[in-house]
Amino acid sequence: MFQPKTMQESIVPLLVANIVVGTGIWTSKRGRLLNVAYSLICMVTYCCLMKLSTEYLGDYYLHKVNSLGDMTFQGIFYANICLTLCLIPCGWLRRKHMKAAMMRILMCEKTMDQMGIQKNYRKLYLNQLYALILVVVVFVIFVVVNYDGMFVEDTPIHIRFIIMFAVNYPVVLLYVGDVSFLHWVSYSKIRFEQLNNLLQRMLTTTPDSPQHKRVLKMKDEWNKPFTASATQQDRRTKDNTDTMRAVKQVHLELIKSTRSTNEAYGIQILLSMTISFVLITSLLYYAYSIFWEKMSREAFRQEMIPVVGWILFYSSKVLIINHMCAMATIEAANTGDIICELYEPSTSKEFRAEIRDFTLQLIQNPLIFTACGFFNLDHTFIHGVIGSVTTYLVILIQVGELPSGKSSNSTINYNDTNFTDMFTTVSYP
């Protein structure tokens, strides 16, 4: 098994995946030119295939679903086009931020190596492989789930290939971008966790040796003559002070590198979260309308399975990204709790001074993930999305009309429903 020895070697799977989908970064000048050329080829090829797919879907596929379903899947179709045309250029623009982040990360790695902290490059390497394998599995499942309902009978093979590529390429592109962003979020979480473990090993407060007992013991030792144990204690205190100073420096560099990474992927996350919110609401409303349609069991299955697949796809993006960002933020904030426990009278003045400086640094430089500054990525955002989706879904159900043939206090008229107007009236939380 390949054993990476440097940070550059540990991110090889991520680099390869980004290069394959056309968003390669962190390469030499010659490599950047090749990446830009390859990305342009991907964009031109995708646009040509999308044009062919749009013509075919307009003639065949989109006419076999009802009006609301027509607009819903058209919304997904064109949203994926916009995301694709935005994400590939974003790969070029994020190079500057990622270069700054990598410089700070390498500085942190060097300092942590001097502190004796394990680098765990193999773990980072394997995590990327597992994440990319999961992307492939999800992609295959996605293709299988949407395959039956995407074509009419006697569809030519080449047309099937074109449509499958046009519909699923944005899915792969989004997943690779999400995996890339989550890798750096996970990296920061792992490093913060290692720093916290190092600080916790410095804690001496236990139920058997509380702080007040050590203060009394320290007072008794002042009245005793100078001994070898006192010298050993002074040496340990100096080592702890140096360790605290090094941890403070690494913690700050990790915060700054993570911010640079967040800025690099900010536009992608903003577009992804916004479109996910709008499409989750629309798809849930469409799924609700399917239950009121008179159709056979087979037709119901063909209509519902793709809808559920797209809902799971966009919901998973919102849940996983925000959860990982929240866990990294919590791990970075836990450092403050640990150093406050280390602040006690039995330690030296220099050590307490370092803790005070560290506390001020944590207050001035909190770790917060944002989508270009519009909203924070954490558990609160998940709660907001759930509440907003529920609110707008109830509003859409109340103002809509159910199809004739089903009894209800409210009725839905699909022909009068304007999907575009619905998009424009939905405001993001």
TrEMBL record:
GO process annotations (BP): chemosensory behavior; male courtship behavior; sensory perception of taste; signal transduction
Compartments in which it is found: Cell membrane
GO CC terms of this entry: axon; dendrite; neuronal cell body; plasma membrane
Superkingdom classification of source: Eukaryota
Annotated PANTHER family: GUSTATORY AND PHEROMONE RECEPTOR 32A-RELATED, INVERTEBRATE GUSTATORY RECEPTOR
Stated family: Belongs to the insect chemoreceptor superfamily. Gustatory receptor (GR) family.
Protein name: Gustatory receptor
Organism ancestry: Eukaryota, Metazoa, Ecdysozoa, Arthropoda, Hexapoda
